[in-house]
Write a structure and sequence with these properties.
Blueprint: E1 2-6, H1 10-21, E2 25-30, H2 36-42, E3 49-52, E4 55-58, H3 59-76, E5 80-82, E6 84-90, E7 109-115, H4 117-127, H5 129-135, H6 137-141, E8 147-153, E9 155-158, H7 179-182, H8 193-196, E10 205-209, H9 213-228, E11 233-237
Parallel strand pairs: 1-2, 1-9, 2-5, 10-11
Antiparallel strand pairs: 3-4, 6-7, 7-8
Length: 240
């Protein structure tokens, strides 16, 4: 059984480790460094408590004792592929095409992903410097644009979890007027960006929308800022 797992957080990591241990052929597609939100939150809330296997653990303890050993193991086994998954499709079979040991009714999924060819080649060059001489510096430097590729799998597991691109602000999960254009320049922050890019410097009024864990963590960051000066305001819009 060939299995694709999409994600870089604990859910994807433990999933890849488990299915590899029972004999599946696993490929873990990771867009970011393995660790996901745990790696990210360590910089801000290392002593935050989480529950894992029925026990309360600090984030730092969970990272060091539970997650890092599994990450090392799946990386040593080369189960990961650094790529940005663009879409998952049901594979179309031509009338004269067949799959070894399977009928034409067998489910087969195609994972289409984007990779940076230059990064992949540079990693190979570190392992095999002779390859550089064969390719030449000019060829390597010409590889700038990401390229699309694909692999076929029996099963695909979506394990990206929290922290993905958030839903647009408009109704029916569509972009609000000019939202796409102002995201990079206006003081609007989504999910992880609310911690990594959000700055309180020069702000007098902060608006938080939503009641998910990310919103709660931003509230914690704003606590001291809010009470330092009387003119500062914080508005939290939440459905519950």
């Amino acid at each position: 059984m060939k299995m694709a797992i999409i994600g870089s957080g604990p859910q994807a990591i433990f999933c890849a480790h488990y299915f590899d241990s029972i004999g599946a052929e696993v490929v873990l597609f990771q867009k970011d460094a393995l660790g996901g939100n745990v790696r990210f939150l360590l910089d801000y809330f290392p002593e935050m408590e989480i529950e894992f296997q029925g026990e309360k653990r600090t984030l730092k303890n969970f990272w060091q004792q539970s997650l890092v050993p599994v990450i090392k193991e799946i990386e040593e086994k080369r189960l990961t592929k650094a790529a940005d998954v663009l879409r998952v499709q049901k594979r179309f079979l031509h009338s004269d095409e067949s799959i070894h040991n399977h009928s034409r009714l067998h489910d087969l999924f195609r994972v289409v992903y984007s990779v940076n060819p230059k990064e992949a080649i540079l990693r190979q060059l570190e392992e095999n410097p002779e390859m550089f001489k064969q390719l030449g510096e000019q060829v390597v430097n010409s590889l700038h644009s990401p390229v699309e590729s694909f692999e076929d799998f029996d099963i695909v597991i979506e394990a990206r979890g929290r922290g993905k691109e958030s839903l647009p602000l408009g109704p029916s999960q569509s972009w609000a007027l000019n939202e796409i254009n102002i995201r990079s320049t206006a003081a609007i922050y989504y999910e992880k960006n609310m911690l990594s890019q959000f700055s309180l410097e020069g702000k007098t009024h902060v608006l938080i929308v939503g009641n998910n864990p990310s919103a709660a963590l931003v509230l914690l960051r704003c606590k001291e800022w809010l009470f330092e000066k009387d003119e500062r305001r914080l508005t939290w819009v939440t459905p519950t």
